[in-house]
Specification:
The protein has eight helices and no strands. The chain is mostly helical.
C-alpha cells in the first residue's frame, strides 16, 4: 500500500449522552422517585377534581330538566307534496327516467328518488337544476 501515510489511532474519549427526558418522562413515578432519592426539589400539585367524575355529572340536572320540558318537535323540512307531484309529472311528460334526469343535472339517481318520494331535504340549487332540465316551474306551480 504505497502512498498511504502511517496509520494513527485517536485515543480521545468519546462521550455518548442520552437526550434530556421529555416532560412526560419527568412526570412518571419512576422519575419522581429517582429525583427524591437524589435530593432534588419536587413540586407536587393536586389538580381540581382530578380522578373524579364530578365534571361530567355537574350541571346536567338543569340541562336534563330543560330538555324534558321542551315540547318543540324538531325535524328537518321535507319536500312538499306539490313539488314531488310536479317533479314526477314533468319528468314523465318528458319521457325521462329518474336516472336520465339525474345524469342531466349531474346528481345521483338516489337524489331524484328522494325528491319524488318526499324524503329529501329541499335544496334550492337542486330544485333550480331540475326546473332548468325539465323546462318547467316546480316551486309554487299552479295547474
Amino acid at each position: 500500500m504505497a502512498g498511504i501515510g502511517p496509520i494513527r489511532q485517536d485515543w480521545e474519549p468519546v462521550v455518548v449522552r442520552k437526550k434530556a427526558p421529555t416532560a412526560a418522562a419527568k412526570k412518571d413515578e419512576k422519575a419522581v422517585n429517582a429525583a427524591r432519592r437524589s435530593g432534588a426539589e419536587i413540586e407536587t400539585m393536586k389538580k381540581y377534581n382530578a380522578g373524579t367524575n364530578k365534571a361530567a355529572s355537574s350541571g346536567t340536572s338543569f340541562n336534563t330538566k330543560r330538555l324534558d320540558d321542551d315540547t318543540e318537535s324538531l325535524g328537518h323540512e321535507r319536500v312538499s307534496s306539490d313539488l314531488k307531484k310536479n317533479l314526477m309529472q314533468a319528468r314523465l311528460d318528458k319521457k325521462m327516467t329518474q336516472a336520465q334526469l339525474a345524469q342531466m343535472i349531474n346528481e345521483k339517481p338516489q337524489v331524484i328518488q328522494e325528491y319524488e318520494s318526499g324524503k329529501a331535504i329541499p335544496n334550492q340549487q337542486i330544485i333550480g337544476k331540475l326546473e332548468r332540465a325539465l323546462g318547467t316551474k316546480l316551486r309554487n306551480a299552479k295547474k
